Amino acid sequence: MQNSASRHLHTDSGSSASRLQVAIQLAGQSDSTGSDALPPEIGGSRNVVSVAGTSGDALTHEQYVAQSCGVSALVQRLPTELLADIFDMCFPEEMLWIDNSITAADEVRRLSQHHLLQLGQVCSRWHAIAMCTPKLWSTLAFDINSWRKFPIPNSAFLTLLESSLTRGGDHPLTLRVGTRKGLTENRDAITLLYKHAQRWQSVHFSSNDRCRCKSFSDAVGNLEQLHHLSLNVSWKRVDIFARAPRLKSLTLRARKGIVGDLSTLPWQQIERCECIGTRMSKPHLLYFPLSVLQRAQSAAEIYLSLTLRSTSVSQTQLFQVSSNAREVEFELDADTPQLIGQLFDCLTLPCLESYDFYAAGDDLPPWPSEAFLALADRSKFADHLTRLSICAIISDVELVRCLKVLPRLEELSLWDGWPTESMPVPNIVITDTFLRALLFKEDEPYLVPSLGFLYLVPRLEFSDSVLLDVVNCRIEELGSDDGDECPTFQVKLFWQDPLERSRDVSAETLEQLQELVSEGRLLFYYGEASEFDF
């Protein structure tokens, strides 16, 4: 994953920094032919080059090279360490994919770190940096499952793997590996990996069966740097990770409903736990997440992504779990509230501060109001829950009812639904009824009185005037508290695209909100929603 500096280079594309990265990528591709070899920032044919983020005018290749002379001179003056960082930012993220779409050529390119080999052909200095900087060779992905279907000897893949591991020196390793039991190439590749076990820092093993690879036993006691582990819960040899003193983050996947013995994992030191369950058989629907939560009681962050396609499960599969997590995120593919309600009924979250509830697929999951209210009561959410996000099937009346038990809530994020095959008429929760409930009323308790942040992705089924009333009311209430600085209310409003909303926000409303911004009383962001807002 790109770091913040890399994201800056991509977003600030009009800056010299972005042009510098484009120039480096273009230089690294100079040995290739055809437009397919050009980096993503460069479009069109080899004779016409268009640089993303500039004025938008197409330049000939010769014009671009001429305009980049100053950038090229700057590149030559860059310190080796900075140039290595930029090389690292050029890492193609698609190299990390483990799926059936990978071709033999893809596998060779990523095992050989082809992008580094290309950069190393530009000049002797670049070659030295690309070949001799261990961190550039510290992220490896390969799919052993696919090797036998390719017309390339396994020995060739193993040679490339060994070469990349060697060039990484002692630098901590990030690994994504597709494995399968019983494969000779699986054993040989894993034998290479365990020789570098002391370097493992973030490891993802993708396996669809009960992996029994004996070679993994040689990694026992050598996992001093392992920080993040991701694997299928059907593994037989999770005991090899029992002695990993720095392991803090754990991702467990159950894709066939088979849950192995997870007791030997160092649960007491896990701070963040992800639990991903799809295609599970009915008896394991809730047993899997509950068993993980029971063991990860010390984790501060819990993420559950589950497919719950059933009305209910037997009570024999259920048991009570209390977790000290401060942040819990549910991402659910579910069609009825009963199973979600059963899951909620098993939980007690006495330390919870942040609660997210989202859809895992196209269809919104139903929100089990009664089960949530019971969970809030026994977990005492009224004392400590400060952040809530809901993207689910819930009415505005139900939402207000749930908010009444959360007096300490400071941040609230809500999404209206969108039309799907199963629900052509979308669920609407951001309405005048909901917004009016946020207004101060002398004869009623003030709903979520500490609310200072409101994030809305609506279909604009509410009135602009009611939104303005809420903003003014909240600003007034926040400003009435004693203090040297006047607090500001924050609103983020990202409406759905024109085909999925009933109207536009009026220019007059936006102008009034911007006036409050200019007065320093409001932080306001608005615009079209993107896929990242869902």
From TrEMBL:
Alphabetical list of InterPro entries matching this protein: F-box-like_dom_sf, F-box_dom, LRR_dom_sf
Signal sequence, renumbered to the chain: none
Domain annotation F-box: ranges: 76-142
Pfam families per the UniProt record, alphabetical: F-box-like
Name assigned to this protein: F-box domain-containing protein
Organism: Favolaschia claudopus
